[in-house]
Write a structure and sequence with these properties.
26% strand, 19 strands, 31% helix, Alpha-Beta Plaits, alpha+beta, 4-stranded antiparallel β-sheet, 2 domains, 401 residues
C-alpha cells in the first residue's frame, strides 16, 4: 500500500465519519452519496439496493472476472450505532479527524474505515479483472445497526446479484479472524394480574410484582454447557409496565434475550423459557415471592403469561480450512500476523448469512477503541498491513494471484 492509497483511504474514511448515519435515526442518503461520488469518479459500476418497502438498503459494486468461477463479497456497513451521551465524548462524534494516529468518530471502527478500504480494493482490482476467475462484489450496506440487516437481506434477495460463495465482513479487530458467532432467540413475555387501586383495603399483587418473580426465575434457569466455544446465555434486557402511582398494573412486559449455540439452538431456547413460564404460572400469584394464601383465595387467578417470540438467528462456526476463512487466515499469516480463528459472542451479519448457507468471516481489521461506545476511534498504523491482507485474500479467492 503506497502513500497515495493510504492517504486516499483515510480521506474517504474521514468524509464518511463526518457524515452522520446512525441506524434508524439519520437519513442514509448523504453517506451513500459520499460513496456513490467516490465510486463514480473511478468508473466503478454500482447500484443501490432496496428493501421490500422500496427504501434504500445499501450499495452494491460488482466486478466480473474474465474466467468462470465463484463470486466473493467484501461487506462493510456504512450506518453506525447511535452517539449515546454526547457530553461524555472528549471530541465530537462526527469529528472525522486524525489525532496521534487515531481516526476519531462514530463509525471509524464499525465500519466506515473498512468501507473505504473495500472501495479502494475494488478500484485496484477492476482494471485487471480479466485475469480473475468468478467475480468480486463489494456490499456497502446500511440498516445494519438497527438489527434488521436490511442491506444484506436486500443483497441476497436481489435477482440481479450474483450469489456469493462466501463473504468477508469488515468488522474491526486485528487479533483474530472471526469465523463464527453465537445465535440468539428473543421473546417478549407479558405477565398478567388483576388490576386495582393501590390504596384498596384488600392487597392486590400487580403484574409488575409478579414479573419481578418471573425475572428471578429466569435468572436462576440453568443452561447447558456444550462443545461450542462460548456457552449459551439468558438475559432479561427490559421490563416495563404500570403507569402513575394509584393503579396496580394488570400487565407487565419482560424482554428476554437468549444467546444460543449450535447444539442449544432456538428451539431449545424456546423450550427452556416456556418451561420457566409454565412453572411461574403454576404458582398463581407467586408464592415464591409472597405469602399470599389468603390473597389467592380471594382474588381471580391471573391469566397465563404470553410468550411472543420476536427474533431468531442460528449460531454458526466456520471451519478454519473453509473459504473464505482459509484465504484470510493464510493472508494474515503471510503478512506476519499471529491470528487465530475466533467465535464471537454477539450475533452479526454472519449469522444471517449462515442461515442462508453462505459462509462468512465476521471480523478482521484495525485496532480500535470505543466500539458502539464513547470516543470511538481506530488506529491507522496497521492500515497498510490490514489492507494488504484483504488484497492477498481476495487474490487467492479469485484465482491464486
Amino acid at each position: 500500500m503506497d502513500d497515495d492509497v493510504f492517504g486516499s483511504v483515510v480521506a474517504l474514511a474521514r468524509e464518511l465519519v463526518r457524515t452522520p448515519s446512525r441506524g434508524g435515526i439519520d437519513d442514509y442518503g448523504p453517506v451513500l452519496g459520499v460513496l456513490e461520488r467516490w465510486l463514480t469518479g473511478r468508473g466503478l459500476p454500482h447500484r443501490r439496493l432496496r428493501g421490500p418497502d422500496g427504501t434504500t438498503a445499501g450499495l452494491l459494486v460488482e466486478i466480473a472476472g474474465g474466467r468462470p468461477g465463484q463470486w466473493w463479497t467484501l461487506d462493510a456497513c456504512a450506518d453506525t450505532a447511535p452517539f449515546g451521551d454526547e457530553s461524555a465524548w472528549s471530541f465530537p462524534p462526527t469529528a472525522g479527524d486524525v489525532v496521534d494516529g487515531w481516526l476519531r468518530g462514530r463509525g471509524a471502527a464499525d465500519s466506515k474505515t473498512a468501507a473505504a478500504m473495500f472501495c479502494h480494493l475494488a478500484a485496484e482490482i477492476a482494471p485487471r479483472a480479466d485475469e480473475s476467475a468468478g467475480g468480486l462484489a463489494v456490499l456497502l450496506d446500511v440498516d445494519e445497526h438497527t438489527g434488521r440487516f436490511g442491506g444484506a437481506r436486500a443483497y441476497l434477495a436481489d435477482p440481479r446479484a450474483r450469489r456469493p460463495a462466501g463473504v468477508m465482513i469488515g468488522y474491526p479487530g486485528i487479533g483474530d479472524v472471526v469465523v463464527g458467532g453465537r445465535g440468539l432467540w428473543r421473546c417478549v413475555l407479558t405477565v398478567h394480574a388483576p388490576s386495582g387501586h393501590s390504596g384498596a383495603r384488600r392487597e392486590v399483587v400487580g403484574a409488575v410484582s409478579r414479573a419481578a418473580r418471573l425475572v428471578r426465575m429466569l435468572d436462576a434457569a440453568e443452561l447447558p454447557r456444550d462443545s461450542f466455544p462460548l456457552p449459551p446465555r439468558l438475559t432479561v434486557t427490559a421490563i416495563g409496565g404500570g403507569e402513575g402511582f394509584s393503579v396496580v398494573p394488570d400487565r407487565c412486559d419482560v424482554n428476554v434475550d437468549v444467546r444460543t449455540t449450535v447444539e442449544f439452538g432456538p428451539r431449545a431456547a424456546e423450550r427452556l423459557v416456556r418451561a420457566v413460564v409454565a412453572a411461574f404460572d403454576a404458582e398463581g400469584f407467586g408464592t415464591g415471592a409472597f405469602d399470599a394464601e389468603g390473597l389467592e383465595a380471594g382474588a381471580p387467578r391471573p391469566r397465563p403469561t404470553d410468550v411472543a417470540p420476536v427474533a431468531s438467528w442460528p449460531a454458526y462456526r466456520l471451519a478454519g480450512d473453509r473459504q473464505p476463512a482459509a484465504a484470510l487466515l493464510q493472508a494474515a499469516a503471510e503478512a506476519g500476523l499471529e491470528v487465530g480463528a475466533k467465535v464471537a459472542g454477539p450475533s452479526n451479519i454472519g449469522n444471517l448469512l449462515a442461515g442462508e448457507g453462505v459462509p462468512a468471516t465476521a471480523g478482521f481489521g484495525l485496532p480500535h477503541q470505543g466500539l458502539h461506545g464513547t470516543d470511538e476511534r481506530v488506529h491507522l498504523a496497521e492500515l497498510p498491513r490490514v489492507y494488504g491482507v484483504y488484497r492477498r485474500a481476495v487474490g487467492l479467492l479469485l484465482g491464486g494471484s
